[in-house]
Each structure stands twice: as C-alpha cells, then as structure tokens.
Write a structure and sequence with these properties.
This protein is mostly helical. The protein has one domain. It contains six helices and no strands. Helix 2 packs across helix 5. The longest helix has 32 residues.
C-alpha cells in the first residue's frame, strides 16, 4: 500500500492524503489531531504530505535537512497557488478585452 500512495503523490497530493487517511494512521500520528491535516488538504497539500512523510521517516520529529525539504514543498505550494491566480487573472482580462 505505501507504493500505491507514493504513485498517487506524483499525480495529486490530495489523493495521496486521502489514501493515507484511509489506509494508515500517519496523518493523525504526525499532527496529533485532524484539524491541521484537514486545513492542509485544502490550502497546502504538498506541505502537509511532506510533513507527514518526513515526520515518519526518522525519530518522529523534523531535524536538519528535513526542514529544508519542508520549506521546498511549502514554496511549491505557494508557487502553485500563485500560478493559479495568475492564470485566472490572465484568463479574465483576455475575456474582457474582446468586448
């Protein structure tokens, strides 16, 4: 099952988070409750997924280089949010100029 979740993560972090929630307790163990993973599912899915996986790899805490990887996925989430906003803005301005 972990290999299936890893393949899902390549296509969609939200599908991987759903798979993790259904088939193991990693999200609950790494975050301690359901609120942060729930918010992370909608706002920062790559960061939520990376935190849960990095937390489970070693000593059940983030240390050293793991913080770098978490920051990378955080910026990846921000870039995807910014790219979506830019696409919506360009699409709406292109549509209004045709009138």
């Amino acid at each position: 099952m972990p290999c299936f979740i890893a393949v899902l993560a390549l296509f969609s972090p939200r599908l991987a988070l759903i798979g993790m929630w259904l088939f193991n307790d990693l999200l609950t163990e790494s975050f301690g409750n359901w609120i942060l993973p729930f918010i992370g599912f909608f706002v920062l899915p790559w960061t939520t997924l990376a935190y849960a996986l990095l937390w489970s790899l070693g000593t059940n805490e983030l240390e050293g280089i793991e913080w770098f990887f978490l920051a990378f996925f955080f910026f990846l989430d921000l870039a995807s949010l910014g790219g979506g906003q830019r696409a919506r803005t360009s699409r709406s301005s292109a549509g209004s100029s045709s009138y």
